What does this fold into?
Amino acid sequence: MIKGMILGALSLIVGGVIVAALVIKLGYAPANADATPSWLEKTIAKTALRAVINRQAPKTPNPEALNDQNLIEGIEIYAQNCAVCHGASDGQPSNIALGLYQRPPQLAMHGVEDDPPGHTFWKVFHGIRMTGMPSFAHTLTSEEIWKVALFLQNMKTLTPAAQAVWKHVPSQAVKKAS
Ligand code: HEC
It folds into this structure.
């Protein structure tokens, strides 16, 4: 009886794996980016990300002091590495942002000021798997990542000097020739 149940369960699992492999091999599993992620896909991805970040992200405050120099360095790093996907102060998306499967938030409009800085640090350092969000672990130093996190944390309350630099980051929206 138990043997039969185990055999039944095993053949169900093997059958499931074969069907899944066939679906993928025959080209029925979606691999395109011009679609909207399903509710299930979003829920699984967000739950997994939240759990990993809660476990791994640094719990310390931002080690970079809040001053003009650090904020401006953070903005410059952002302009060079992030604005192409997350936009400038006008919050207008680039064509790249519009074409990504997981739409990157335009941070001037949907910012992360309320997130703990360690969470932002983790996302920039490690990137977010299976989205367009790259890891900067090998291209920015930890100090640079904390500075960009400092800017994002304080984007709505920048010092006048930093605000002037932020306003000068060019819009990423593609201007159509008229
Ligand atoms: C090639 C596009 C791309 C670039 C470049 C990029 N990101 Fe992202 N980023 C994304 C996408 C897509 C997401 C959304 C991921 C998701 O849905 O979970 C994201 C998510 C984020 C988030 C989480 C936002 C939230 O609401 O929780 C932060 C913070 C972030 N990026 C910061 C940065 C910073 C800082 C840089 C530059 C150092 C950067 N990103 C560069 C595509 C990009």
Residues 1-31 form one domain. The two ends are 76 Å apart (CA to CA). Residues 78, 81-82, 84-86, 100, 102, 104-105, 112, 120, 123-124, 128, 131-134, 136, 148 surround heme C (CB under 6 Å). The first helix runs from residue 2 to 25.
